[in-house]
Design brief:
With 140 residues, the protein is mostly helical. It has four helices and no strands. The chain crosses the membrane at residues 6-28, 49-67, 79-100, 112-137.
Length: 140
């Protein structure tokens, strides 16, 4: 199975994006030590944002590897290829940005990014999953 050049580029971008997750981990250690003041809501949302970023970026890498072998039609391929990486940006952004400020008591309107990201995740997973099943059935 040959990996396409555009897949290699996206793979590289996603790997470099994991550096931001690493710096997010350092940020969380500072929050945990009390160096950065944060209330309970912020701590929970920061942890959730960090975890979602890492897991979704790794899932994105896995999906990319198999999509080149599936040869999905162009429109489906774009949704399958970018749905999860877009979610990996939007969902953590929703968690982090919705609780910025001094002692917020509830998330702000930027929490909508979380739900837009969840929609992107669902579309990406659905398209990739169905596309891979169809490709497998056609290949057998």
């Amino acid at each position: 199975m040959a990996i396409q050049p555009h897949t290699l580029i996206l793979f590289g971008v996603l790997l470099l994006s994991l550096i931001t997750v690493e710096s997010g981990g350092w940020f969380l250690t500072r929050v945990g030590r009390g160096s950065i003041p944060a209330n309970a809501l912020q701590k929970n949302f920061f942890r959730a944002g960090h975890a979602h970023a890492a897991v979704l970026l790794m899932l994105s890498l896995v999906i990319l590897v198999v999509l080149d072998a599936a040869h999905l039609p162009a429109g489906y391929d774009v949704v399958a290829r970018f749905g999860v990486p877009v979610a990996a940006l939007l969902m953590p952004a929703g968690f982090f940005l919705s609780v910025l400020g001094k002692d917020p008591q509830r998330p702000n309107r930027l929490l909508a990014l979380l739900w837009i990201g969840a929609g992107s995740l669902t579309l990406g997973l659905l398209t990739a999953g169905v596309g891979l099943i169809v490709a497998g059935v056609q290949a057998s």
